[in-house]
C-alpha cells in the first residue's frame, strides 16, 4: 500500500533545476531514507511534499492513492504529514506543552486555552512512544535531543501519519542518536510512515527499510537497504567510487612541537570545563581527541586560539608560551584552526570568497599597501587556491554564502594551509559534509601530516577519529581519560566499543 | 545596485502616499508637486538653499551609514551634531586667529570632541556590553542639556536672548561673505545676475567638506584594510574575533568616525549658517534625519550623497507649498515617513524589481 507517491516532480529556481522529473514511491509503514550529497535536491523535494514549494508544471503528488495539491504547509499538516526540521522551530521561553499546542490550542467553553486537556493528550502520546518528557519544562532548558522529541511530539499531536525528518542526527550526540533510533523504531511499530533525509550511510543501515538515491536533482534508484552495502550506497550517491575509509601510511613522527600543561579553563557558567588537561603533539602526527559533545571540547579550542581566557596552566608551541595571547598573536605563532562552526566563525558569509581568504592577513603585504587593499593580489591568491583545492564554482567574486557546505569548508582549509601553520587544530572538520567532501578533507589532512605538520583532530564522530588518528586521547569532563597508541588502534578489532566505553566515563583507564 | 532601484521604487511610493494626503486635504497633488518643483529648481538661489539644507543631512547620513556598515546603529548622530555645534560655537567665540588658522583649528577641535562623544558609546559597548542604541539615545539628551546649560553661562550667553554670542568673523566658512557686500562685489554681481542670485544665500564651504567626506568614507569602507576589518566586525563578530581582529577596539573606532562626521555637520552648520547656537527645547532632528538619509541611500556613501540631496530638496521645497497653496508642510514629513516605511518592507517592491530587472540578472 502506497502512502505517498510522487510523479514527475520538477522544481527550477531560475535556470537551475533543483529537482528534475523525480518519481518516488513510499510504502505505508516503512522507514524510507532519501540519500544524496549536499545540494543534490533532497531538501527541495521534501519542501515540495510538505507544501512549502510548489512543483513545476506536470508534477503530481498522490497521497494514499488520491491526487492532492499541496498548496501550503497547512494543507500538508491537515493531510497528516509532519516535518521535523533540522533547525528546530521552537519558541524557546515557552514550555514543552505550549510549544506543542501552539497554533492548535484546545479551548475551554469560554475560550481560554484548555491546558488540562492538552496535557493529558500529550502525556498519552509521550507514553505510547516512550518519550519521557515533562510537559511543563521550559524548552530553553532542554538538551538538543529532547528538543527534537518536542518537535516529533508536535507532529504527532497534529495527527501526522507521515513524518519527514530533515538530517535528524546532524545535531545529536552519540547517545542521543541511539535514543533517536529507538524512537524511530517505536514510531514504525505504531504504523507511522517515516521519511528521513540524510547523507549518513550507517544511519540508513541502522534504521531504514528502503533508500532512494538522488544525485544532482535526479532520481537514481530505490534500493532495499538490507541488500546494499555502505560502499554501494556511497558510490551511487556520489556517482563514482569513494573511499569511506582513507588508507594511510604509518606516521613519520618528528620532535615535539605543541604542548599543553595542566590546563584549566572555565566555561560561560563559570565552572571548570577543562580541568587539568595535558597534551603533547609531535611533528608529522595526527592526534585524535575523542569525546562526547560537551566535555570541554569547545572551551579547549577557544582557549588554545585565544578566544577564551586560560585560568591556569601553559600552552606551548615551538617552546614559546602562547597562553592568553591575543588570537592574532597566536595565529602569528603558526597555530591555525578549522573552527567547529564554519558559517558563524570560520567564514563571513556575506563577504566575497576573495575576502574570506584573507580575513587574518588583510593588513599584510601583498594584500594591502599602506592600508590600501590591492584587489588584484586578493584575486590572484583566491584563484590560485580555488584551483589547487578544487573549490567550485570557480568564481572568486561570489559570496561565501553561495557555496555548498563542502566548498565552504574547503575555503577554510585552503586558507589555513596556505598560511603554512606548524600546528593545525581541526575541530569537527567534516561536520555536515557528504562523503565526497569528507574523503577530500581527510586526504588533505593526511597530506598535511606527511608534510611534517602536527594536527590535533577534535571530533564527535568516533569513526573519523579512529580512521585518521595516529594516537587517540579520550576527553571526559575536561580531562584525558585514556590514551591509545597506534598499535592499539590498528590491532584492536573492537576499538570502537573500547573507546566508546571510555567516552561514557567507564572502562579501565 | 538592486538596493538603489528598490530605494527608487520606495521614493515613488512615498510620493504617491504624499499625493493621497494632499488630495485628502483638498489640494491638487499635481499642483502641489508643480509648486515644489518650481520652488526647487527654477532659480539659482533655490539650488543654493538646497545645497545648504542638504549638507548637514549628507554628513549625518554618512555618520549613520558608516556605523551601520560596521554593525552599529548610531542613533546618537543628533547628540554628536550638538557636540560639534557647541564646540564650534565656543571656539568660534573665544578664539580669534587668522582665518587660515582659526577655521581648521575649530573644525578639528569640534570633530575631535564629537568623535570622542561618539566613541564613548562605542567604548561602553565594547567594554561593558551596553547596547549602542540605548547609550546613544541617552547621550543625545545629555548633549542637548549640556548645550543648553553652556549657552546660558555668563560670558557666552548673549544678554536678553535665548542664544549664545555670535562666533567671530574669522570663524565663518561662508564663501566671499564680506566681498558680497563690498562695493566691488556689488558692482560685479550686478553684472552677473545668475551668479548673483546663486550667491544670495550664505553659501559656504561645508558642501565641499561633505563631498570630501563622502569620498573618504567610501575609500575607507571599500579600499582599505582598516575598513575591511570594520566591516568584518559588522558582519560577524564571531568570525572577526576568530580572525584575530580586535573587535572591541574596532567598535570604538567605528563610533568615533561616525561621531566625527556628525560633529562636522554640527560645526559647519554653526560656522556657515547659524553663527551661534540657541537654547533647544527639543532635538532639531539633523541626526534623526541622518538615519532616514542613510536608509534611503542603502547605507552606501554615494547613495547617502544622493539621498541627502533628495531629502534636502524635499524639505526645502516642501515649505513652499505652505505659502503658495496653504497646504500643510507636514505632508513632507509624511512622505519621508512613508518612504522609510516602504524601505523597511523590502518584500513590497521586490516582486516589481524581479519583474523588471531580473531578466537581465539571469543572463549574468
Give me the secondary-structure topology:
The complex is a heterodimer of chains A (509) and B (364).
Chain A lengths: L1 E12 L2 E12 L3 E5 L6 H8 L10 E4 L2 E3 L4 H6 L2 E4 L11 H6 L13 H14 L15 H14 L4 E5 L7 H16 L3 E6 L2 H7 L2 E6 L2 E7 L5 H9 L17 E11 L5 E11 L3 E5 L6 H8 L5 E8 L2 E2 L5 H6 L2 E4 L3 H5 L6 H5 L10 E2 L2 E2 L1 H14 L16 H14 L4 E5 L7 H16 L3 E5 L3 H7 L2 E6 L2 E6 L1 H6 L3 H9 L6
Parallel strand pairs in A: 3-8, 3-9, 6-7, 7-8, 13-20, 13-21, 16-19, 19-20
Antiparallel strand pairs in A: 1-2, 1-4, 4-5, 9-10, 11-12, 11-14, 14-15, 17-18, 21-22
Chain B lengths: L1 H23 L4 H13 L2 H26 L7 H18 L4 H30 L3 H20 L25 H5 L1 H8 L2 H7 L6 H18 L1 H11 L1 H6 L4 H28 L11 H11 L4 H25 L4 H15 L1 H18 L1
Helix pairs in contact in B: 1-2, 1-16, 1-17, 2-15, 3-9, 3-10, 3-13, 3-14, 3-15, 4-5, 4-6, 4-13, 4-14, 5-6, 5-13, 10-11, 10-15, 14-15, 15-16
Describe the structure.
The complex is a heterodimer of chains A (509) and B (364). Chain A is built from 18 helices and 22 strands. With 509 residues, chain A is of the alpha/beta class. The longest helix of chain A has 16 residues. Chain A is globular, with a radius of gyration of 25 Å. Chain A starts with a strand and ends in a 6-residue tail after the last helix. The mean pLDDT of chain A is 90. With 364 residues, chain B is mainly alpha-helical. Chain B has a single domain, classed as ABC transporter involved in vitamin B12 uptake, BtuC. Helices cover 77% and strands 0% of the residues of chain B. Chain B contains 17 helices and no strands. Chains A and B meet through helix 10, helix 11 and strand 18 of A and helix 11 and helix 12 of B.
Amino acid at each position: 500500500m502506497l502512502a505517498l507517491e510522487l510523479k514527475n516532480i520538477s522544481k527550477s529556481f531560475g535556470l537551475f533545476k533543483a529537482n528534475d522529473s523525480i518519481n518516488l514511491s513510499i510504502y505505508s509503514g516503512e522507514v524510507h531514507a532519501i540519500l544524496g550529497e549536499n545540494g543534490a535536491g533532497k531538501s527541495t523535494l521534501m519542501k515540495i511534499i510538505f507544501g512549502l514549494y510548489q512543483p513545476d508544471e506536470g508534477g503530481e503528488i498522490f497521497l494514499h492513492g488520491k491526487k492532492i495539491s499541496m498548496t501550503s504547509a497547512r494543507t500538508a499538516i491537515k493531510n497528516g504529514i509532519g516535518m521535523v526540521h533540522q533547525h528546530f522551530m521552537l519558541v524557546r521561553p515557552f514550555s514543552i506543552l505550549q510549544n506543542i499546542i501552539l497554533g492548535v490550542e484546545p479551548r475551554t467553553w469560554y475560550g481560554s486555552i484548555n491546558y488540562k486537556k492538552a496535557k493529558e493528550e500529550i502525556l498519552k502520546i509521550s507514553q505510547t512512544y516512550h518519550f519521557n518528557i515533562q510537559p511543563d519544562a521550559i524548552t530553553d532548558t532542554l538538551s538538543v535531543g529532547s528538543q527534537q522529541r518536542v518537535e516529533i511530539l508536535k507532529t504527532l499531536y497534529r495527527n501526522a501519519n507521515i513524518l519527514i525528518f530533515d538530517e535528524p542526527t546532524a545535531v545529536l550526540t552519540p547517545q542521543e542518536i541511539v535514543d533517536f533510533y529507538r524512537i524511530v523504531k517505536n514510531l514504525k511499530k505504531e504504523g507511522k510512515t517515516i521519511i528521513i533525509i540524510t547523507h549518513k550511510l550507517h544511519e540508513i543501515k541502522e534504521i531504514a527499510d528502503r533508500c532512494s538515491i538522488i544525485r544532482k536533482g535526479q532520481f537514481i534508484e530505490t534500493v532495499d537497504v538490507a541488500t546494499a552495502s555502505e560502499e554501494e550506497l556511497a558510490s551511487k550517491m556520489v556517482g563514482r567510487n569513494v573511499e569511506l575509509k582513507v588508507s594511510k601510511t604509518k606516521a613519520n613522527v618528528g620532535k615535539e612541537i605543541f604542548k599543553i600543561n595542566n590546563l584549566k579553563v572555565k566555561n560561560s557558567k563559570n565552572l571548570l570545563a577543562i580541568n587539568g588537561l595535558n597534551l603533547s603533539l609531535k611533528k608529522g602526527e595526527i592526534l585524535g581527541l575523542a569525546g562526547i559533545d560537551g566535555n570541554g571540547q569547545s572551551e579547549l579550542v577557544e582557549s588554545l586560539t585565544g578566544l577564551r581566557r586560560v585560568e591556569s596552566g601553559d600552552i606551548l608551541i615551538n617552546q614559546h608560551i602562547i597562553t592568553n595571547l591575543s588570537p592574532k598573536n597566536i595565529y602569528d605563532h603558526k597555530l591555525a584552526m578549522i573552527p567547529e562552526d564554519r558559517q558563524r566563525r570560520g567564514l563571513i558569509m556575506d563577504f566575497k570568497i576573495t575576502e574570506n581568504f584573507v580575513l587574518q592577513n588583510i593588513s599584510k603585504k601583498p594584500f594591502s599597501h599602506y592600508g590600501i587593499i590591492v584587489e588584484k593580489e586578493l584575486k590572484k591568491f583566491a584563484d590560485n587556491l580555488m584551483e589547487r583545492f578544487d573549490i567550485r564554482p570557480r568564481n572568486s567574486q561570489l559570496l561565501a554564502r553561495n557555496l555548498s557546505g563542502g566548498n565552504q569548508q574547503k575555503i577554510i582549509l585552503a586558507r589555513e594551509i596556505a598560511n603554512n601553520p606548524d600546528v593545525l587544530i581541526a575541530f569537527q572538520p567534516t561536520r555536515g559534509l557528504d562523503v565526497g567532501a569528507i574523503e577530500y578533507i581527510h586526504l588533505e589532512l593526511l597530506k598535511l601530516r606527511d608534510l611534517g605538520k602536527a594536527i590535533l583532530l577534535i571530533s564527535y564522530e568516533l569513526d573519523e577519529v579512529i580512521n585518521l588518528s595516529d594516537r587517540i586521547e579520550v576527553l571526559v569532563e575536561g580531562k584525558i581519560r585514556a590514551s591509545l597508541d597506534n598499535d592499539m588502534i590498528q590491532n584492536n578489532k573492537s576499538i570502537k566499543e573500547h573507546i566508546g566505553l571510555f567516552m561514557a566515563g567507564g572502562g579501565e583507564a | 545596485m538592486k538596493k538603489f532601484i528598490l530605494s527608487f521604487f520606495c521614493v515613488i511610493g512615498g510620493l504617491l502616499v504624499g499625493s493621497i494626503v494632499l488630495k485628502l486635504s483638498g489640494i491638487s497633488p499635481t499642483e502641489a508637486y508643480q509648486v515644489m518643483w518650481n520652488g526647487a529648481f527654477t532659480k539659482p538661489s533655490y539650488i543654493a538653499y538646497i545645497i545648504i539644507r542638504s549638507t548637514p543631512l549628507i554628513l549625518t547620513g554618512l555618520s549613520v551609514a558608516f556605523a551601520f556598515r560596521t554593525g552599529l546603529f548610531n542613533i546618537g548622530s543628533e547628540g554628536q551634531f550638538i557636540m560639534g555645534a557647541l564646540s564650534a560655537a565656543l571656539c568660534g567665540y573665544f578664539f580669534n586667529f587668522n582665518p587660515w588658522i582659526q577655521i581648521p583649528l575649530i573644525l578639528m577641535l569640534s570633530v575631535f570632541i564629537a568623535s570622542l562623544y561618539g566613541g564613548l558609546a562605542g567604548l561602553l559597548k565594547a567594554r561593558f556590553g551596553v547596547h549602542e542604541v540605548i547609550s546613544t539615545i541617552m547621550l543625545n539628551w545629555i548633549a542637548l542639556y549640556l548645550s543648553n546649560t553652556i549657552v546660558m553661562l555668563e560670558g557666552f550667553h548673549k544678554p536678553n536672548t535665548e542664544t549664545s554670542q555670535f562666533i567671530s568673523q574669522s570663524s565663518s566658512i561662508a564663501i566671499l561673505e564680506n566681498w558680497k557686500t563690498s562695493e566691488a562685489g556689488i558692482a560685479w554681481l550686478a553684472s552677473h545676475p545668475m551668479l548673483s542670485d546663486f550667491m544670495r544665500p550664505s553659501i559656504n564651504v561645508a558642501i565641499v567638506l561633505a563631498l570630501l567626506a563622502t569620498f573618504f568614507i567610501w575609500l575607507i569602507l571599500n579600499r582599505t584594510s582598516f575598513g575591511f576589518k570594520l566591516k568584518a566586525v559588522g558582519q560577524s563578530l564571531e568570525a572577526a574575533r576568530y580572525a584575530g581582529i580586535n573587535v572591541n577596539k574596532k567598535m570604538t573606532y567605528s563610533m568615533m568616525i561616525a561621531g566625527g562626521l556628525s560633529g562636522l555637520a554640527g560645526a559647519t552648520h554653526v560656522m556657515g549658517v547659524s553663527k551661534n547656537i540657541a537654547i533647544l527645547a527639543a532635538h532639531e532632528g539633523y541626526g534623526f534625519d541622518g538615519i532616514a538619509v542613510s536608509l534611503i541611500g542603502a547605507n552606501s556613501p554615494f547613495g547617502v550623497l544622493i539621498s541627502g540631496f533628495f531629502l534636502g530638496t524635499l524639505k526645502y521645497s516642501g515649505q513652499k507649498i505652505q505659502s503658495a497653496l496653504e497646504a500643510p508642510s507636514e505632508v513632507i514629513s509624511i512622505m519621508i515617513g512613508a518612504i522609510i516605511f516602504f524601505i523597511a518592507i523590502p518584500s513590497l517592491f521586490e516582486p516589481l524589481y524581479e519583474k523588471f530587472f531580473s531578466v537581465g540578472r539571469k543572463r549574468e
